[in-house]
Write a structure and sequence with these properties.
single chain; 73 residues; mainly alpha; 3 helices
Length: 73
C-alpha cells in the first residue's frame, strides 16, 4: 500500500512542479516574436490551405465566421 502511494505521488509531484512558471517573461518575448515561432509561418501556404479547405467544405467566410454553404447562420 505504501509503495503504491509513493509510486503515485512521485509523478504527480513532478507534474505539479512543472507548472510553477507559466507566464512569458519580458526578456523572452523577443524569441517568441521571431517569424519561425509563429503559428502560421508562411502566409502563402496558409492561404492555399484555406482555399483548399473552403473549396472542399463548400462554405464561405473564414475560420471565425459562422454559417456554411447552405445559407444557415
Amino acid at each position: 500500500m505504501l509503495h503504491t502511494l509513493l509510486y503515485m505521488a512521485l509523478p504527480i509531484t513532478l507534474i505539479i512542479s512543472g507548472c510553477a512558471n507559466l507566464g512569458v517573461q519580458p526578456w523572452e518575448r523577443d524569441l517568441l516574436a521571431k517569424p519561425e515561432m509563429q503559428l502560421i509561418a508562411d502566409p502563402i501556404e496558409a492561404a492555399l490551405d484555406d482555399h483548399i479547405y473552403f473549396s472542399k467544405e463548400a462554405s464561405s467566410g473564414g475560420r471565425g465566421f459562422g454559417g456554411g454553404g447552405c445559407g444557415c447562420n
